[in-house]
Every structure is written in structure tokens, then in C-alpha cells.
Amino acid sequence: MDVFKEGTTKREFLKGGNVMKKKSLALFVCFVMIAAMFTGCAPKAPAASGEQAAAAPEVIKVGAVFPMTGDVATFGESSKNAVSIAVEEANAKGVLGKKIEVIFEDDSNTPANSANAIQKLISNDKVVAVIGSVSSKCSIAMGPIATQNKVPMISSTSTNPKVTTDGGEYVFRACFIDPFQGTVIAKFATETLKAKTAAVLYDVSNDYSKGLGDYFKAGFEKQGGQVLAMESYNGGDQDFNAQLTKIKPMNPEIILLADYYNTVGLIAKQARALGITATFVGGDGWDSADLYKVGGDAIDGGYFSNHYSADDTSPLVVDFRKNYEAKFGKTPDALAALAYDAAKILFAAIEKAGSTDGAKIKDAMKATDLEVVSGKVTFDQDRNPIKGAVMIKVVKDKYEFAAKVNP
Amino acid sequence: MSLIQQLINGLAQGSVYALIAVGYTMVYGIIRLINFAHADIYMMGAFIGYFAVTVFHVPFLPALLLAMIGCAILGMTIEKIAYKPLRKSPRIVLLITAMAMSLILEHGMATVVVGPNPRPFPELFKINIIHLGPVQINNVQIINLSVAIILVLILQYIVYKTKTGKAMRATSYDMEAAQLMGININNIVSITFAIGSSLAGAAGVLVGMMYPRIDPYMGMMPGLKAFIAAVLGGIGVLPGAMFGGILIGLCETFTKAYLSTKLSDAIVFSLLIIILIFKPAGLLGKPTREKV
Asked: ipTM greater than 0.90, yes or no?
């Protein structure tokens, strides 16, 4: 038996050589066929678009990088929706007599992905400008690449100052920056909430969170308040009991939760479970319908600073809200408003530049003076818009306008 | 005062690591495999609990049981499909297969089943705070701790007092000899996977209640820490895994509270290195000789 078996294996082994040869031949044929397919197609593609160009006006390609998945997925969704509305409006009239085509990329809120996405948009898709991303840490990773390639980039909602200072002269943004946001929250906490003591909880691995915490502390102390604790945690942490237990005996009147809605909800819940009764305040990272889903009653009665309020009655806001609701069936959040603004600012700059040349668009963008949904935008020397902020109160799953704070 | 409070926080955290670590250690004890997919079974447990509550509207206990049963079946299936055909292969092959299983579960969930976005775990109990003098504990923490303790006691009973447990212990000492004594190795391995996985499933539901945000990648960090807990306590030794889990939980909470949040993970991992330098077999592990 064994000998026979060995024989067969030997025979099979010998045959195996043939099979291998046959296989490699087949592989080679496949490869040649695939190569032929590509070479066959390649010359065709430009020809096809050339024909199109003759019939229809040429397109202007714009890239957009947003977190469509991951821990801040609702941000990406709102932003994408808003950009597509802005594109529709722009295409109704045409920009430079051409149509805008947006290529969306997902960075899942990870800086490495954002850098890859913008690299791909610039080198493969040859976009003339990029909108995005949402988080500061992602936009910080993208900025230098945009400037190196002389492709203008406008972030919709990245509020950390480093986004434009580290990013270079081709990087703009449509939102106010954290020093301003931190000061606004501090001002509101001391003047309206009459708070004298505060504690801060922030994510050490997130530029947005850390920046907001620092600027709030500076602002709050300048207003005569006292920051009792600056507690930190790591990105992705789920348990905050250790930090909250430390804060509890200090009994601060307010606690700044400088993070995005998912984490804010978790922290708020654990804080209330420990018996902490302080009022929670935060920044624009709270702005999501999911805030209440995770945080529940714990987050009820909190306040956060934001870029715009959907209840504003200026015609631009009313129009935008109407369009957005008609198309997507929900009220646009600030992420949507700013992404819309970013797209508007960019398209206006392209029109004004009269060209799709990166340097010219950048210069036109610098001189922006435009009324958009989140207010009137002009840029300072660091390419940050100068405009006001609003404070919003969380009432169950609804947001109520609380106050308007000007710079 | 705040020290005792932190102790409670650490225990709550540690009990979760302990439940996951037990699964690592049981599987390692029997087939010498570090089952990297174990952390993802914990994640699946959280999701089974989530769907049981949101879709079928069942209360806590049935949700917990469903998650445990679901994970037990999943664990056994993974063993039958992925590990059993490789039982005679070198250990590195099994290890790589385990990593592949882990990736399949994570990305399968993230791309096909539930999507990569975090979901809010439904509130099963209204949180009530109970004051015990200066210290306070809430009902969810009490429920979690007691469920963890009960499960560990049941496990102890199964392993040390039943015939199956005896067979499991025999198999872990010497698989071939156990087989010669008439123990059905395949069944024992299946049962081991089922028990380990059901504990991970229970941990998933408990964590979902404590930190109501679940996503397909939630298993990564707790899985890693539970693995460290298992190694720390002496991998393959049951009480070691529980002890290691509690120790890691306490250590993490205390470094966060009194030393540094930034370094808490680094300190936990360094603790492992230091202990392994002095006690290479882990705290409760016995030094093993290489079998010839």
C-alpha cells in the first residue's frame, strides 16, 4: 500500500511540474490579455472625453475629503450632503461656463487616510482644489500636501489654528478657530451661566480637543474664573471613571467636554452615574443628532458653541435649510452649513480667478468678501474667517439657540 | 475616600478584562493557541446583545443569555472551520489563522453587517446611584460585578467539579495521554471554545451597558489588555487569568487617577515586561519544561 502510494505521489509530483508550467503559461496569457485590455482602453478614454468636450462644456474637478465612516460619521454625511447641494446650485449657472464635478473620498477620521486621499485626488484625479476635511487632525495632515502641490484647500470645520499655519498659504477654512471658540465658551460660562469654577476633560491625542481645552482655560481664567482640573484621556478610551472620580470632590460648576459627540455622550453618562451635577459645556464637536442617542438625559441641559443656528432668519439660512430639508429630510447641522459655505467660497474664488490655476484661485480666495450661511466671511492674514459664533442649549434631542457672541 | 472609589472603578474595569482573559487562557491551556479572534467574539457578543434588545426588545437576562449562546456557537464554528484542520500544523500557522479570523470578523462586521460607525447601546437599566458612606456605586456597576463573579464561580464549578472539567484538565496536561484514556479530544476542544466564547459574549453585553457605544473595532484594545492579563497571571492557568484581569484593571485605573493618563497604557504594558523578566511563567504560572 505504502509503496503504491509513494509511487502515485511521485507520479503526481512529476505531473505537478507540468501543471506548474501550464499554470504559469495560463497566468502569462491572462497577464497579456489584461495588459491588452488596458492599452486598448487607454487611448480610447481621452478620445471619449474629447468627444464629450466638443458636445458638452468641460468639467472642473474638485476633490472633497470627509469622514464618511468611523467615530464622526454623521459629520461626513452632513458635509457631503451640503457640498452636493452647493454643486447643484453652482452647476445651474455654471462656473467659468463649465460644470463642477466633485470626487468624494472617505478618510474615516484618520490622518493617514486623509493624507492618502488628498494625494490620490491631486495626482490621479488632477483636481483643481480640495474641500475638507472635518477634523483638525485630518486637515493638519492634508494641508502641507496641498501647499506643496499648489492646490488650494479649504477645510469646512477644522478649528485648530495649526491647520492653516502649518498647512501653508494654500490652506483656508470656512469656520472660526479654537482660540475664538474657547474664548466664546469661557465668556458664556462666566457671563451667562455665572460660573466661577470649571474643570476640563480633553483627549490628548486630538489637536482639536487639546486646543479647545487650553484656550477655554486661558479665556476662563482671564474672565476671573478658576479652572480646578485639566484632566486628559487617550483617544478611543471608553472608561472615564478614574478622571471623573478625581474631579468630583472638587465640585466644579461647569465641566468642559472638549470632544466629539460620541465620546461626549459617554463621558456625560459616566459623570452623572458618579453623581456629578455640573453643567456640561462644549464646542462645535457636539453638533450631531447622535449626541442625545449616546448621552441620553445626561447631556440634557448642556451648552455648546456653534457656527450657526438653524433657527436664524436671514434669507440665506432659510433658503439653505429649505433646500437641505427638501432633499435630505433633516435639519442641516453646522457641519452641513460650513461645508456648504466652504464650497460656495471656493466656487466664487474660481469664478473670480477666471482660471483653474491653483495660484490664481488662492489669490482670489484670499480676497474673499462673501455673505454665506454662517455669516459674512473675510479672511485674516492666516486665512481664517472673521465672523461670530452662537451658543446652543441641548434640550433633550433638540437644540435651542441660547446666545450670539461676536468677536 | 477617593482611593476606595477608584478601587471600585478599577474592579469594574478589571472584571471585564478577567472575563475575556479566561477565554484566552482556556484555549491556550488546551491547544496551545493564542486565539486572537477571541477579542472579536467579545465584540460580536456586544452586537448580539444590541440586536436582541433593539430588534426583539428582550430584557437584560435573556439578552445576556442570547449573547452567550450566540458567541458559544460562533466560537465552536470558528474552531471547527479554521483551527481544527490545522491542529497538527506548526503553531505559527494556527496563530496566523487566528489573526486572519480576527480580521475577518472585524472587517466583515464593519463592511458588510453593521457598518463601521459606532452605535449607541440601549439603556437596559436606569442608573441609580447608591451611597455607601463616602463611596458610591451605581446599579450597573453592581450588576456587572455580580454577573462577572457568578460566571467565574460557574466556570470554577465546571472545570473543577464536573466530569467534563476533569476531561478538560486532563487534555490540557497531555492531549495524547488523555486521548488514550478515552477522552474525546474534539468534543473537549469544542466545549472549551464554547465556554471561553460565551464568557467573552457576556463581557460584550456588560461593557455595552457600562460604556454604551459599540463598534466593530471595540475588541482591539480590551482584547490586547485581556491577553496581557492572561500572560501576566500565567497563561493556561485559570485563576491566573482572573487575577491578571483584575490586576490590569486596577493598575490602569490607578495610573490614570494618580500618575498620568497619557502613560496609562504604557505603564500597564511595562508592568507586563517587568513581571515577565522576574517570573517568565507569569504570576501564578508554573515553569514548564519543554516536552521531548
From this structure: no
